[in-house]
Design goal:
alpha/beta; 2 domains; four-stranded mixed sheet; 26% strand; elongated; binds uridine-diphosphate-N-acetylglucosamine
């Protein structure tokens, strides 16, 4: 297992480029199960979760080639099974359920278990598929879904679920009749999936709003689609400029999709400007000061940036409050930040952060993807050396993070644990 060794205290300066979005690429690649023709996907990030998705697609019967951020897929004889070994390493594997039910009328998908950031059930996905005419049995930890034919339905989600909206949207594009999704997720990655499906001939309106209407079509065929840039990676780089008191030009930064995050970072004292070459981010003269953040579905503050902004709050003047409203157990980074000298107390889903003058390098353990990013940010700003262990979480969601950060002045080495 690898660890990252970070020599802290170096301001980052220079240009850094954002890769394609992991959370957009995953559903879009799963949507290739729906296609009758080969497809090419551009700007696919080079990540562990993408490799897992391609392995799963190949097992299902979709041929996949992956070279230099371009994935080519070709439909073959589909096999409706997603085994536990793959699903357990990536919860998003459940996104093959909708496309398989739509194409084959059956699917056997291992039920994703809990993960470090909470129980994360898929009841909303299953309830919607049942309304569309599917039946489910549980056998040996696998969900077995069957339907003679999916039909359109009026579905009201209990909460705006990103994965649920994507899974059901993929099923509905080939279902008989019209599906209406109410209280749908509005995340930009849901919109990117809808745009891809529309480019293949799907009939979808309302994506990006809480009500999405999908009229089923008989078949879909694709050619080339470019995945949107990763707003969470971009947000992490913005935070890196602030916490190291550096100045970064962030290329391919999806400014509009990051507006809530940018507003908060500006409130904390960062100067962030959109230019023709990218987004320029630096810390203002007054330094970092505290703020309050409540995570919410898009367009609210994203839970996937909560751990990273908390690293900044740890070294801000004044106190900050973080209210985590999307996931339970999403404060796994807090005990690790405390090991680095942060002053944080947790009460239920709220964390109170009292800023300290500086963090001190320490041995810390990554527990999930975004917690790992928070620890890297803390390590970049800390006095001394920080060793971040269990970075396989980081490799699931950040493409070559140490290479990108070292190119703008960071001192990070990847070492065997
Ligand atoms: C996606 C993102 C993840 C992000 C999250 C919230 C991907 C691959 N992952 O995860 O990075 O943190 O959105 O923005 O895109 N819920 C239920 N029942 C369900 C579905 C969800 O109770 O059937 C709950 C979840 O436990 C959670 C909330 O709804 O509390 C939101 O989850 P959801 O939006 O579905 O997250 P994911 O799609 O798993």
């Amino acid at each position: 297992m690898d660890k990252l060794r970070i020599e802290g205290g170096v301001p980052l300066h220079g240009t850094i480029a954002v890769s394609g979005s992991k959370n957009a690429a995953l559903p879009i690649l799963f949507a290739s199960i729906l296609l009758d023709s080969p497809a090419s996907f551009l700007n696919v990030p080079h990540l562990q979760d993408i490799e897992t998705t391609l392995r799963l697609l190949r097992m299902i019967g979709v041929s996949c080639e992956n070279e230099d951020h371009v994935v080519q897929t070709e439909p073959g004889n589909l096999l409706p099974e997603a085994p536990y070994d793959l699903v357990r390493t990536m919860r998003a594997s459940v996104l093959c359920l909708g496309p398989l039910l739509a194409r084959l009328g059956r699917a056997r998908v291992s039920l994703p278990g809990g993960c470090a950031i909470g129980a994360r059930p898929v009841d909303q996905h299953l309830k919607a598929f049942e309304q569309m005419g599917a039946r489910f049995d549980l056998e040996g930890g696998d969900i077995i879904g069957r339907t003679s034919r999916l039909r359109g339905a009026h579905i009201v989600f209990d909460m705006p679920t990103v994965g649920g909206t994507e899974n059901v949207m993929m099923a509905a594009v080939l279902a008989d009749g019209t599906t209406i999704l109410e209280n749908a997720a509005r995340e930009p990655e849901v919109v990117d999936l809808a745009k891809f499906l529309i480019s293949c001939g799907a009939n979808i309106v309302g994506h990006g709003t809480p009500i999405i209407t999908i009229k089923g079509v008989s078949s879909l065929s694709a050619n080339t689609y470019s995945i949107m840039p990763d707003r969470i990676e971009a947000g992490t780089f913005l935070a890196a400029a602030g916490i190291t008191k550096g100045k970064l030009l962030i290329k391919h930064c999806p400014y509009q999709e990051l507006e809530t995050v940018i507003n908060k970072l500006q409130e904390m004292g960062m100067q962030i400007t959109k230019t023709s070459e990218g987004v320029l981010a630096e810390l203002g003269k007054a330094g970092l000061h505290g703020t309050d953040v409540k995570t919410q579905p898009y367009p609210g503050f994203p839970t996937d940036m909560q751990a990273q902004i908390m690293a900044l709050m740890s070294v801000a003047s004044q106190s900050s409050i973080v209210d985590e409203r999307i996931f339970e157990n999403r404060f796994m980074h807090v005990p690790e930040l405390i090991r680095m000298g942060a002053k944080i107390t947790i009460s239920g889903h709220t964390a109170m952060i009292r800023g300290v003058s500086h963090l001190i390098g320490a041995q810390v353990m990554a527990s999930d993807l975004r917690a790992s990013a928070s620890l890297v940010l803390a390590g970049l700003a800390a006095h001394g050396t920080t060793n971040v262990r269990r970075i396989y979480h980081l490799d699931r969601g950040y493409e070559q993070i140490e290479k990108k950060l070292n190119a703008v002045g960071a001192r990070i080495t990847r070492e065997q644990q």
